[in-house]
């Protein structure tokens, strides 16, 4: 005889939401991914088309989430719009997307647009990522401090190096700018090259460059550059967990808040009705979505439940 114990309240919520929907649609064919449930509308929590704008720095993980979600729910269609953070917010405010996955929530001014239309957002944390620094293996530097990086953004550079960002509209750029309370970033030691692969290519070919990308992007690309680049340790000098020790980013140091440049990502649902935004948000925050996060090397907002088999007889 076997008894099964399931953990994870997020998973229970997703199963309940999806289960209720599926009960109404038993026997519906999965051949047509846009087919509507009989007697119902063409849009529901697991049926229809959803435009989702995604921070470009987290796209490798979102690509996996999209693939699994669509395989599980063939009546749903996602249009993923990949943009750096500043442009992603503009897409949301221009009604080109109703759901976003970003490294911050909208501010009060940005939320006014939706409040004036009586749209109340549904916002949930989904995972933790980090801003990371990458150097050339020919460089003697194996670590960096946050004050040195911020000085470079202010135009003060004692080591003749240059910071290479994927995009000056990115969440990584914004996070460092806010951390240093820098009103205007100097351009003499800062450069944007378009995307994370461009950052690593630049660092690989120049030992006086320090690349700035997300940890998710680094994990996605490191195998292509592993012999020429290395991730730099960062001194933990900010926040309540500051201990002046050097840490490399990984799942453990991000979860333990030892790596100082971690950040939380959120799913922001501004869809005014009970549509596909609800179902996709529930998937990301539920057991299956959080397992994908864990497998990717990032830190889930809630640890996925585990199945424990208890045997009465051995």
From TrEMBL:
PROSITE patterns noted in UniProt: PROKAR_LIPOPROTEIN
Domain of life: Bacteria
InterPro entries: PBP_domain (IPR024370), Phosphate_ABC_transporter (IPR050811)
Record domain PBP: where: 47-287
UniProt keyword list: Signal
Span of the signal peptide: 1-20
Keyword Signal: yes
Name of this chain's protein: Phosphate transport system substrate-binding protein
Species in which this protein is naturally found: Sphingobacterium psychroaquaticum
């Amino acid at each position: 005889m076997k008894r099964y114990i399931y953990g994870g309240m997020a998973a229970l919520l997703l199963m309940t939401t999806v289960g209720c929907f599926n009960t109404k649609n038993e026997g519906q064919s999965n051949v047509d991914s846009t087919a509507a449930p009989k007697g119902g509308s063409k849009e529901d929590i697991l049926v229809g088309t959803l435009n989702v704008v995604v921070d470009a720095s987290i796209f490798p993980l979102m690509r996996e989430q999209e693939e699994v979600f669509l395989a599980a729910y063939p009546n749903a269609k996602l249009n993923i719009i990949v943009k750096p953070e500043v442009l992603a917010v503009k897409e949301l405010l221009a009604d080109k997307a109703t759901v976003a996955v970003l490294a911050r929530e909208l501010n009060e001014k940005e939320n006014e647009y939706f409040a004036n239309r009586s749209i109340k957002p549904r916002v949930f944390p989904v995972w933790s990522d980090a801003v990371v620094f990458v150097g050339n293996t020919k460089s003697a530097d194996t670590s960096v401090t946050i004050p040195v990086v911020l000085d470079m953004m202010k135009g003060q550079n004692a080591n003749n190096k240059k910071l290479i960002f994927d995009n000056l509209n990115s969440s990584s750029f914004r996070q460092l700018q806010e951390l240093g309370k820098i009103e205007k970033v100097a351009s003499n030691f800062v450069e944007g090259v378009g995307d994370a692969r461009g950052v690593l290519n630049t660092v690989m070919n120049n030992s006086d460059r320090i690349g700035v990308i997300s940890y998710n992007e680094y994990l996605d690309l490191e195998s292509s550059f592993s012999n020429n680049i290395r991730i730099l340790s960062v001194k933990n000098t900010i926040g309540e967990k500051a201990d002046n020790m050097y840490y490399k980013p990984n799942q453990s140091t991000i979860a333990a808040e030892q790596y100082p440049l971690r950040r939380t990502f959120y799913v922001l649902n501004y869809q005014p009705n009970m549509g596909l935004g609800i179902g996709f948000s529930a998937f990301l925050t539920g057991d299956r979505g959080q397992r994908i996060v864990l497998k990717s090397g990032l830190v889930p907002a809630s640890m996925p439940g585990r199945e424990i088999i208890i045997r009465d007889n051995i």
